[in-house]
Amino acid sequence: MQILQEFKTCDRILPAHSHLYRAGERLNDIYNLLSGWVALYRILESGRRQILQVELSGAFLGYQPKLVDPMLHSAECITDVAVCVFPRKAFPDLLERHPVLGLKMIGMMSQDVVRTHDHLTNVGGRSGMERVAHFLLNIYLRLRHDQKAQGCDTLAMPLTQEMIGDAVGLTPVHINRILRQLRERRLVILQNRTLQILDLEGLRRLAEISQLYVA
């Protein structure tokens, strides 16, 4: 957004697999994701990773209710990413001076709440195949919306099977088996970092999404 240009410290490019920040860190900056994919995650006491959210371009990262508190999650770059960096201390003034940005932030945070509720329902209330179908369909719809590729059924997908498993609470072996079953049912093909939806309506029914919304 043009509004951010007067407040930003700099733009940064980070390589895939690097961290924007880690849980426990106190940040001096907030980040607006200009391009790329970022995974927000926590490490459980068992050592397993739980991916909380996959963030795409446009997301604000490093923001939480009390800006002075340490981060409760880590942010890892799935792909190379570009971020706009601006100081946390300037953020309240930025929102006060630019109500339009504040409204945009409210909209984004409301959408985050919807995604969180959706994610909890998916992990806690669906079978393994339904979880994976729902996760892939949700990512697909977000990508199609962001890229305005309304007629495209094939999109880049940098997530590994391990990452998908960490997002939906299944092992990579289980994910591999489910992806094979989805392919055999002519619903989805995920290979060579590409997601191809073969039967959008069939995948929607399996994922139990009543309408093709973007969450």
Automatic annotation (TrEMBL):
Keyword tags: DNA-binding, Transcription, Transcription regulation
InterPro entries: cNMP-bd_dom, cNMP-bd_dom_sf, Env_Response_Regulators, HTH_CRP, RmlC-like_jellyroll, WH-like_DNA-bd_sf, WH_DNA-bd_sf
Gene Ontology MF term list: DNA binding; DNA-binding transcription factor activity
One Pfam family in the UniProt entry: cNMP_binding
Location of the HTH crp-type domain: 126-201
PANTHER family registered for this protein in UniProt: CRP FAMILY TRANSCRIPTIONAL REGULATORY PROTEIN (PTHR24567), REGULATORY PROTEIN YEIL (PTHR24567:SF26)
Name of this chain's protein: Crp/Fnr family transcriptional regulator
